[in-house]
Amino acid sequence: xxxxxxxxxxxxxxxxxxxxxxxxxxxxxxxxxxxxxxxxxxxxxxxxxxxxxxxxxxxxxxxxxxxxxxxxxxxxxxxxxxxxxxxxxxxxxxxxxxxxxxxxxxxxxxxxxxxxxxxxxxxxxxxxxxxxxxxxxxxxxxxxxxxxxxxxxxxxxxxxxxxxxx
Length: 166
Known about the structure:
mainly alpha, 0% strand
């Protein structure tokens, strides 16, 4: 499940924050990052609330006094938070709140991969989200696409009004 997390995190952050200066590449990387746990076993530490909180704190401490660098790298933590939402990890109490309710994760809380049909559907939804975002934010234009690939930023003119403004 790569495109599900990358596509929906990109679209969600672009629509909710409406900021051209967020590094959307890092948002997508943060949303996909917890998937690496599947390489060595069932999801655990990267699927807890502790992971994105520590990641956010680390970004703020490591880059203290460098506000633009903090703003750039905070996208990684935002993506990790979005992974928890898109994965449904928040619904698994002992996993999500680990180690708040003890260090053992209940087996009932261990997430399982969806069936192949649902997995394919989720990936198609993620790809559709990326295609929609590319069109919506003008990434078919070479200059905008190059800027996005180089900086992770979107063109301010393509963002439109920020949500919640009149």
